[in-house]
Amino acid sequence: MSYLMKPNLILLPGLLNDARLWQAQAERLASVANVSVADLTGSDTIAELAADVLEQVPAGMFALAGLSMGGYVALEVMRQAPERVMALALLDTSARPDTPEATENRHKLMELAKTDFPAVSRGLREKLLHPAHLGDVNLAELIDDMAVVVGKDGFIRQQQAILARIDSRPTLPNIKCPTLVLCGREDKLTPVEVHEEMTALIPHASMTIVEHCGHLSPIEQPTVVADALHQWLQQRST
């Protein structure tokens, strides 16, 4: 594939993640796509974050992949500019709004961030990672380092955006591009069933479950996720 023929691929990080979330996939896919990772730290609503993404991407069509909060933003991009997205990947995310319990937990984390921000990422690890990965020092350091880059203020903006997000399920049948839905088998935050729900509602969706994996699939099982995205890109509409 020549350079001029490669599609633009935009990757959207999750809460408290930076571009390093996607490093393995960006490297793997560089031969087949012009890869960039969008910044999702500057606004406090999902609609504004989606508009930020559209300002950051090159003109024309692009492929779009988002994890967790990045998936919420990706679904909003599909509402704002569906004609520009040639292929969509939704990883470890959900089309549902928060439950009351999740909303309460977000408010608690926002309060904690104001007094002990490092404790936020430490406290989230058990929910983010597969049990077998909890002792991985490199993963723990990466999660903490990414949180430091996003920062307390960025985290609070992201949580405010997530808290106010809409129920995206009614608009899923409007998605017309090829769509990959992927999740870790042991994802505690957005479990398999919510991905099955999205797959059923999106007309051209296929689903991949990644074994031995929690919520942060791109860093927990980087090769498997990179291979899945590579196959998805090859099947895109042109």
Task: Please outline what is shown here.
This protein has one domain (3-97, 163-234): Rossmann fold.
**Helical content (DSSP H or I, runs of 4+):** 40-55%
The amount of beta strand, in percent, is: 5-15%
**What order do the helices and strands follow?**
EHEHEHEHHEHEHH
Radius of gyration: 16 Å
**Average of pLDDT:** 95
CATH class: Alpha Beta
Q: How many helical elements?
A: 8
Tell me the span between the first and last alpha carbons: 13 Å
Order of adjacent strands in the largest pleated sheet: 2-1-3-4-5-6
The CATH architecture comes to 3-Layer(aba) Sandwich
Computed structural class: alpha/beta
> Can you summarize the main beta sheet?
6 strands, parallel
Total strand segments: 6
The CATH topology corresponds to Rossmann fold
Keywords, separated by commas or semicolons:
single chain; 238 residues; alpha/beta; 6-stranded parallel beta sheet; 47% helix; 14% strand
Describe it for me?
There is one protein chain. The chain is α/β, with parallel strands linked by helices. The chain has one domain (3-97, 163-234): Rossmann fold (3-Layer(aba) Sandwich), CATH 3.40.50. It is 47% helix and 14% strand. The chain has helices spanning 23-29, 46-56, 69-80, 100-128, 137-163, 192-201, 217-220, 222-234, and strands spanning 8-12, 34-37, 62-67, 85-91, 179-184, 205-210. It starts with 7 loop residues before the first strand and ends with a helix. The mean pLDDT is 95.
